[in-house]
Write a structure and sequence with these properties.
The protein has about 350 residues and is α+β, with helices and mostly antiparallel strands. It contains eight helices and 22 strands. Helices cover about 20% and strands about 30% of the residues. A hairpin with a 2-residue loop joins strand 17 and strand 18 (about 295-300). The structure holds fe (ii) ion.
């Protein structure tokens, strides 16, 4: 490869003149922005143990009342991006959120899309666009761009969930903002009940729903049952995996990030090929060893890790007698829409 000219090779008066005119020579930085064969990735393989997070989150509950926090969250920040950037990858943000009994996180809406994966506790709910979505371990609840959402808690124990947002990307686009609102009036009906049976879509007045987000809650009990059925029906199939989709269109549930449920059979090792998007793994049930390049993480229940794009990942169920269930998030919808999605052998 040709050695390109360096900035220092240019006379100082020439460099000063360029700077004065807001001009930059490309060639000294060309390899930096267009490296050969594989992109430069700031995202580092990183893991966060729930046993470390939980006491600090509960401490935050003592230190900061909900009124002073609005959303009481500890962000799972990737050191490769700098902790202050609060991002797990280029497009993903991860946060562990705590809601205590009786607390209420007021209604707002914003441009970034969010989902919540419930980690622990019963009795909390999220009201999204007037629909009250109960929160139980493993449930996935969407709060897509522009939809009002608020969190309440009628139970007796702390509730914790994992927030996954496309905030870093939307912020980078200079399109991130929020609006505070009034407490929502709950409307009757639940999308997950209406769409509970596969292959059957509601068609009032012979028309299909025009709602962009017809289903807002994806109960874990349904996803788990579907994974077990797939594992039984297709014993030869290596990846037992489901994608969370919009039941009307079959598209990913949100526009930027993709969400999946994955089951590792007892003792199974699953090799995921290197793909362009970064991805996140969170253990819903069980335990797994996750290998990303030379790094290896032992993940227990409720632990989370992320892997940069263009990197192969190996998942191993460390339980020899029971399945392990994993929630996965990635940047695939974004990469596909932008035409940069790649799988490398
Ligand atoms: Fe929000």
């Amino acid at each position: 490869m040709n050695e390109l000219g360096r900035l220092e090779d240019l006379p100082q008066d020439y460099r000063d003149e360029l700077k004065q005119l807001n001009l930059v020579p490309l060639w000294p930085s060309l390899r930096g922005v267009l490296p050969p064969h594989i992109p430069t990735r700031n995202t580092r393989a990183t893991a966060w143990a729930y046993k470390d997070i939980k006491p600090l989150l509960l401490k935050a509950g003592e230190l900061t009342p909900i009124e002073k926090a609005e959303r009481r969250v500890l962000v799972l920040a990737n050191p490769g991006h700098g902790l202050e950037k609060m991002q797990a990858s280029a497009a993903m943000y991860l946060g562990m959120q705590l809601l205590l009994p009786g607390e209420w996180a007021p209604s707002h809406r914003h441009t970034p899309n969010a989902v919540r994966m419930i980690v622990e506790g019963e009795g909390a709910y999220t009201t999204v666009d007037g629909e009250k979505c109960p929160m139980s371990r493993g449930d996935l609840i969407l709060t897509p761009t522009g939809l009002w959402h608020e969190h309440g808690h009628d139970g007796t124990e702390p509730v914790v969930w994992l927030d996954v947002l496309d905030l870093p990307l939307v912020y980078y686009m200079e399109a991130s903002y929020h609006i505070n609102g009034e407490r929502q009036t709950v409307q009757a009906g639940q999308g997950d009940r209406v769409y509970a049976r596969g292959g059957l879509l509601p068609t009032p007045v012979f028309e299909r729903s025009r709602r962009a987000y017809p289903m807002l809650r994806y109960p874990w009990v349904e996803a788990r049952a579907a994974l077990l059925a797939m594992a039984t029906d297709k014993p030869e199939q290596e990846a037992v995996q489901l994608t969370y989709v919009n039941p009307e269109t079959g598209d990913d549930v949100e526009n930027i990030l993709g969400f999946y449920a994955l089951m590792l059979r007892p003792g199974q090792t699953l090799r995921l090929p290197a793909r362009s998007p970064a991805c996140v793994f969170h253990i819903i049930e069980g335990a797994a060893e996750v290998t990303v390049q030379e790094q290896q993480f032992a993940l227990a229940e409720a632990d989370t890790c992320c892997a940069p794009g263009y990197t192969a990942v190996t998942l191993r169920n460390v339980r020899a007698d029971q399945s392990t269930f994993i929630f996965m998030a990635d940047e695939s919808p974004l990469h596909r829409k932008l035409g940069v999605y790649e799988v490398r052998a």
